[in-house]
Amino acid sequence: MTTTIVMTVKAHWMNWWLLRPMTRPYVLIDGVEYKADWRTPVHIDVDSGTHEISAGIRYRGFTSLLGVRAVSVHVDAGQTVRLLARNGLFNHEPFYVTAAPAT
Questions:
Q1: Minimal CA–CA distance to 34: which of 48, 18, 54?
Q2: Which terminal residue of the chain has fewer beta carbons within 10 Å of its beta carbon, N or C?
Q3: Burial class (CB in 10 A: 0-12, 13-18, 19+), 95
Q4: Total domain count for the chain?
């Protein structure tokens, strides 16, 4: 059985116009970075258990990962957990990770 975390990174509509062309989103699971694309789910296979999950952005040409705010998420064996990371209204606000809405 595959245990998977599916994370989608979105920007708040108010600062989307700035972030989309100037940054690249990343998903972090237990400190390991995974490149993401805006509004495209990233599928990451993980071991069952509790994981530290966060998302952040890196401005093009810079090395610092910004807007990271980690949460702990428990994943059972064979489970697929769908998450959404979205920053706040202001550009300096972190990305809040929540359960993704059902589609």
A1: 54
A2: C
A3: buried
A4: 1
Q: Which two tokens stand for residue 25?
A: 């989103």
pLDDT in tens, 24-80: 999 999 999 999 999 999 999 999 999 999 999 999 999 999 999 999 999 999 999
CATH number of domain containing 13: 2.60.40
pLDDT at 103: 64
Which residues is 95 bridged to in the sheet? 87
Domain that holds residue 33: 4-99
Evaluate whether 83 touches 6 at the Cβ level (below 8 Å).
yes
DSSP 8-state symbol, 37:
B
Q: What is the pTM of this model?
A: 0.92
